[in-house]
Design a protein that fits this description.
binds fe (ii) ion, alpha/beta, 6-stranded mixed β-sheet, 10 strands
Amino acid sequence: MKIGLFSDPHYSSQELTGGNRRNNLSLGKMRAALEYFEAEKCDRVICLGDLTDTEDTKEKEIANMRQIAALFSEFSMPITVLMGNHDAYVFTAAEFYALLGGCEPTDLHENGVHLLFLDTNYTADGVRYTPHGFRWDDVGLPDPDGLRIKLENLDGDVYIFLHQNIDPAIPAADHRLANADEVCRIIEQSGKVKAVYQGHFHWGNRSSRNGVDYITLPAMAVYDDTEIIIEV
Ligand SMILES: [Fe+2]
Ligand SMILES: [Fe+2]
């Protein structure tokens, strides 16, 4: 299975936010990435979150999502979008996926290969993020034991996708889940997970530990040519 990956477009009408996010360029960058994935005959596309960003009105935030949905509808490849903290700051999950017209993450099992999507838009105490109602660095995976059980019941190679970070090699502890060490232990001890793909840490990172590759994509909003294709 050939998968096109990109992360952190932070698309909005603004020219510059946070000192280095060129938000309004990301629609064009997403188009270029999707055209590249289509030309390379990718079977599917995954966005690792922070698809959009905050505006001064809800109308503008909705209009940005409609532009993205129109772009996605031009392509026949199935597109999965994980919500990032910036998406959850603006929209509920129901609003977000309704505006996109789909793209909800659903675990995929194909020819002995398993793609698992983790939703980490929760506080360390397991409270679901609500729009304008959380701190971005208060983050955790609720029910890590559920992941352990899920992994125990799978045969074959597993690939995990999430927005926020678990990789201990990320040089910014505030980007990691409060229970990242426990989640890493579960993943590494399963012996089934080949790689973990993350966004959120905009500089990107790659590391390997106990047989698991941790790949953090650099942010599309900050850099050029950040998209990658993987084969699993
Ligand atoms: Fe981001
Ligand atoms: Fe993020």
